[in-house]
Amino acid sequence: MKTQEFAPPSGQEPAEPGRALKVRVWRGADEGGFATYEVPWRDNQTVLDVVTEIQRRIEPDLAYRFSCRVGVCGTCAMTVNGKPRWTCRTHVSRVERDGVIQLEPLRNMPRIKDLVVDMTEFFDKWLKAGGRFVGKTTRKERPVAVDPASKERKLADAAIECINCGICYAACDVVEWNKDYLGPAALNRAWSLVNDVRHADIRGVLKQATADGGCNSCHTQGSCMTHCPVGLSPTGSIAGLKKRSLLELFRRD
Fold first, then answer.
1. DSSP 3-state assignment of 109?
2. pLDDT (0 to 100) of residue 251
3. What is the DSSP string of 207-241?
4. Same domain, yes or no, for 91 and 31?
5. Same domain for 125 and 240?
6. Burial annotation 85-95 (CB, 10 A radius, 16+ → b, else e)
7. Does 41 lie in the same domain as 30?
8. I need a surface site. Which of 40, 65, 182, 212 has the fewest CB within 10 A?
9. Total of domains in the chain
10. Cross-strand pairs, 100
11. Residue 70's domain spans which residues?
12. What are the backbone dihedrals phi and psi of residue 158, each rounded to the nearest 5 degrees, phi first?
């Protein structure tokens, strides 16, 4: 166990006298193990606060990602006590168990070092699902009019808040055993484009999203929906893709 006494970071509450939090942190890549650290236990302490405290005061070579610290960027996502979470929005009081928390990198992506994963395959699949927007107009033309009250716009709105943090991908059991599966974030993006009247290649998106490893590989377990930090339903988006692809098939026939 590694421990050290220090003053609280600027803006944080002082530690409660005699109270310490034990943090088990994965160190290494695929080959590695847990190291246990002891840090002061403070009121209103987030998991990201704890990781930052360990890195700045005890273990300077601890690798992790963060940026905004306020739940906008999603880069601080980790596995906390077995569940994927944004660590900047997760208070220690919600997840500690008998004064202990355990931190690991996100599942289903290659580990680089400690709490950092390689998200290349995640973003590659996002593109493979047809996630790149293609406009119908040029810069010299008037933009396509979007009716905010239309059914299509409301369906798109329900999916567009995704920030690609990777939590749904890490939570997906299908991704774990089927590496060809595009995953919930990629298919959620496809659904937003299918319902975007400005998009020029809706049929192309449907073709990519329903190919091998696409929406029909989903087993509708709902883990993506359960763990999404912003309350999106990739499960619903995937169901929409399945239904839309069938309708397109009947129309062609």
1. coil
2. 73
3. HHHTSTTSGGG-----HHHHH-TT---HHHHHHHH
4. yes
5. yes
6. bbbbbbebeeb
7. yes
8. 212
9. 2
10. 22, 97
11. 2-117
12. -70, -15
